[in-house]
Amino acid sequence: MGKYLRPYREAVRDFGTGFEALLWNSEEMQRLRFEAIAGTLDLRGRAIADMGCGRADLLAFLVERGIPYGRYVGVEAIDELRAFSERRAQQQGWQRASFVQGDFVDDQSLCGRLVRQYAIDTFIFSGSLNTLREPQARRALHTAWSSLEQVAGGVLAFNFLSDRHRSRGRASGPARRFDTLGMIRWAFERTPVVAVRHDVLGDHDCLIVMRRA
Prior knowledge:
8 strands, eight-stranded mixed beta sheet, 213 residues, alpha/beta, Rossmann fold, 19% strand
């Protein structure tokens, strides 16, 4: 198991599969990030891979908001969380939902398999990059973006903790801040069709949405 997963493994050990296991500061902050994604990207009809899905809270958000997604695939490396999400979806009767256990950092073939097996056209990383070093995150994002090369209108959406935060301090706990301007350049080096939001949580967070031209 990669070091980046240890905080989640320890949280599951301490808190079970409750919200605390996700290492979010609050459910409100999670919801605001989801709203930013849905407000920046039209998710209707899309085949979504939720990379690091945790408790499938993004799926719950889509259902609650009545957003008619085409397919949802939750990808989670921590088996207890994947199993919880699968049970939750079954109990709630959420349609067109599948769950896959996988580590998107360690398994470089994972994104390609998701595209081939589930016809994924949208990769979303919401909060799942927080414990990674920036080079690890960029490699994972590059793999996801590359797997969409032959997917017309393919989209990669991700958020991360911004180093443009006015305190310029380090993130709390196991989370890391990324070079925001560097991440924006990284996105524009791959496509001219990029949306950037830096106002979701004040200046705390950055959301980038990239679309295949």
